[in-house]
Design a protein that fits this description.
single chain, 254 residues, alpha/beta, Rossmann fold, disordered C terminus
């Protein structure tokens, strides 16, 4: 998960964290994982919205069978929406067409969402297999925190939360959010400092951080090393523009 330090997602503490959660639903079963994890992360008195997007533009690749393919996409997306709705009992539901990430960014702005959640998509490229198959560049422009949900936990809570720390404002925001979630969910918290980053704040290493881990590698590899499939990983938004994340939004090792 990336945590934003601006807009409506600016990391409040306690039960107010992630009050308005927006879940992207497409035609894949990974959407159900996203919905389940979103339900768990949503604030106790928060609102959960499911936005199902039938990506009918993809049907153009089917040539003469485009009409049939378009109908199939709509039907599959509608089915996944029904299943997600039964799973998490959302406060609001919408079914539209278009590109999933684009519609999510627009809807998050309209509703002042504090967290966007999407499921990982199968992809041939290794970086996408690890970090998510969506066109994540579009989600970089989202006005709030973002989670790409991988299988491993949900509707149960994650076993532990790993947060990458580098001393930046975004890193501090991620740590605040991680500690808040760990307290709410009753999870173990593992702060990780990667020592091989050029821009690491050395003052951070002098701080009393009894629960932190120091790793001689860069932050990306340090976080990966201590993560597992039942882990929720939080990083600051600034890190998503670093090529070492492979363009990622969030990561759970499988």
């Amino acid at each position: 998960m990336t945590v934003s330090t601006s807009g409506p997602s600016a990391t409040p503490g306690g039960d107010s964290l992630f009050e308005r959660v927006l879940v992207g639903i497409d035609e894949t079963p990974e959407s159900l994982v996203a919905a389940a994890q979103a339900k768990k992360l949503c604030a106790p008195n928060g609102r959960l919205e499911l936005l199902a997007v039938a990506e009918t533009y993809l049907a153009a690749h089917a040539g003469t069978a485009a009409r049939s393919a378009e109908e199939h996409v709509v039907a599959r997306t509608s089915t996944m929406l029904d299943r997600a709705r039964a799973l998490v009992e959302p406060d609001e539901v919408h079914l539209v067409s278009g590109r999933l990430t684009t519609r999510l960014c627009k809807e998050s702005t309209r509703t002042d969402a504090t967290l966007i959640v999407v499921g990982v998509r199968p992809h041939r490229r290794r970086s996408a297999l690890t970090f998510g198959g969506h066109d994540v560049e579009a989600l970089h422009d989202a006005p709030c925190s973002v989670l790409i949900a991988r299988p491993g936990w949900g509707p149960s809570k994650p076993r532990r939360i790993v947060v990458g720390i580098d001393g930046s404002a975004d890193g501090r925001a991620a740590e605040i959010a991680a500690r808040s979630l760990a307290g709410r969910l009753g999870c173990d918290l593992v702060p990780v400092v990667g020592l091989d980053d050029d821009d690491i704040d050395l003052d951070l290493l002098r701080a009393e951080r009894e629960d932190g881990l120091l790793d001689p590698r860069d932050l990306a590899h340090a976080v990966v090393a201590v993560s597992s499939e039942d882990t929720l990983v939080l990083i600051g938004r600034r890190r998503t523009h670093d090529h070492r994340w492979g363009g990622s939004i969030a990561w759970n090792r499988s």
